[in-house]
Amino acid sequence: MAKVSQPDGRPEEPPDTAPATVTTTAPTTTATGPAGAPVAEPDSPAAEPDARHRLTALQGLAALSLDAMASVAYGPESIVLVLAAAGSHGLGFTLPVTLAIAVLLAVLVASYRQVIAAFPNGGGSYAVARTHLGRRTALFAAASLLLDYVLNVAVSVTAGVAALTSAFPALYDDRVGICLAVLALITALNLRGIVDSAKAFLVPTAVFVGAILAMVAVGLFRAAPAATVTADGHASVLADNATTVGALLLLKAFAAGCSALTGVEAVANAVPSFRAPATRRAQRTEVALGVLLGVMLIGLSVLIGRFHLQPVEGVTVLAQLADASFGHHAAFYVVQFATMVLLALAANTSFGGLPVLMGLLARDNYLPHVFGLKADRQVHRHGVLALAAVAAALLIFSGGDMNTLVPLFALGVFVGFTVCQIGMVRHWRRERSPRWRGKALLNGFGALLTGVSAVVVTATKFSEGAWLILVALPLLVLTFEAVHRAYARIGTRLGLGRLPEPPRRAPSLVVVPVSHLSRLTAEALNAAVSLGDEVVAVTVTHDTPEDRPATEALRRDWELWSPGVELLELPSATRSLGRPIAAYVTGLTARRPGTRITVLIPEAEPAHLWQRLLQNQRGAVVAHAVRRDTDAVICRLRFRLTPPARMW
């Protein structure tokens, strides 16, 4: 057989999802039509009939940046809590540590802006590594991102619910149920499409960003805190025996604060979700995210030093800053409520990025092909549902406790950051486009920073649970490899990539299981005589007193009807229905090896969904037995039971 070459060695269609229809591919057109008229470019709005289901830059900021935006609620606090071990002197290093994180943020934003341009089909670090670092490295990058996205959902939801239960302690015992309800809400919005979720989250995002920026602006003009009501009566967490501020403490503070950088990569992973020109819109979204996040992080750190804030038990740093800037008034509660809502909704970043990544993995045969399917609204529905299911399991396992999940967070994303930067260095060395040396230097510097950060995060959080991620990463990669090998075996058996032999006609015989005479039986025989050269009807009989009258009635009615099709009785000593039919088909196959055998199973389809509960499922039982024990073709005939016309 002649071999059909594919551009990337993958099968043209997934072996288990290829539709049974013939499609034609239109020839590629140039930039001008036959008469010189311009033709829409692929990255232009005119070429996008589904543009309304894709993101604008502003919608992308709301849909894909919530994780990063919400991190300002716990990033500075993580730094302060580590530095508190050195007493009030240690808190003076909050701003320098934050500035170091801001430098890393700037490098990451600049780098991912380049990734968006170089890999406009999305996938982020997975796409970069797959092209420039090899298959195994790409799978490690994909596994790290997958873990981080799933953990982001669980951490974000638990953090938002923790803020709610802090305000209303009576809800504390119901936190798992509330977490699952929030997750269900976010999942439902994303099943309607990423644009709908972006529209729903646009206002909460704007309120949160506006509240934080206003708090920073007002606080900079205050010489002293406006109020300290929230911290009054709470014990300070400053260490009694303060340690010295050494390199190790600063590295731990830096690692803790790096949790604020999770989500920076989400825009690069979901470029195909943007409207055309998708590349430019995604780049603008990435820059806007970096600017807003950097300003908020630095601004909050300045206020921490300005107000000489000390962390206390039971009160967040952000709440103390809101109290100090606005006073304990309405604006304070606006900040708290906006923070609570955004923390809970920050999980949406994962719902925007992970299904796209899973779609790419499915296209490359590393995940089931079902994850590559899109619904009408450009939704990777199965990816959304899988993410929700795993996140729900984590929420139940952790009991809705954020502290159980946080130590596992952020490690995976830094592995992805480092792999992506190294891959981009190789990309620029191969492309050698204008100013490639400067771009490669930027990515190399980013790889150094993120690599060091990954080591620091691993070392400081290893005993707190990070070791679980180090175990899960290779297990995920082994799973990807196993799926890939399975698809390779399927492709070999199906002869994918090779021209098959010309079709040839074979004698056909259609077997129709029946149990009684009805319009359904008549429709089944009509279809059978249209499909096959030969048709035989079969019925399973049981030699018991209660079954004999029905068997004799069917035999008598069949003779009266005389449809021209033989009715063959298959006696069964047990109450089994599917096995006798499967055994008969097996015998036919052995006796007539050149005959194409089809089992046509008639089934009534109720007019209403609830009426399916009334069906006896005989068709499903027969189909299962025939599929399990034979190689016959199974055809299930649906006879629609339309409701009777209403008389008014």
TrEMBL record:
Report keywords, A-Z: Membrane, Transmembrane, Transmembrane helix
Q: Provide ranges: composition bias, Low complexity.
A: 18-48
Gene3D superfamilies to which the protein is assigned, alphabetical: Amino acid/polyamine transporter I
Which coarse location class describes where this protein primarily resides? membrane
Q: Which residues cross the membrane?
A: 93-112, 139-163, 175-194, 201-224, 244-267, 287-309, 329-362, 383-400, 406-428, 440-459, 465-483
Location in the cell reads: Membrane
Q: What is this entry's stated membrane topology?
A: Multi-pass membrane protein
This protein's name = APC family permease
The species this protein was found in: Streptomyces nigrescens
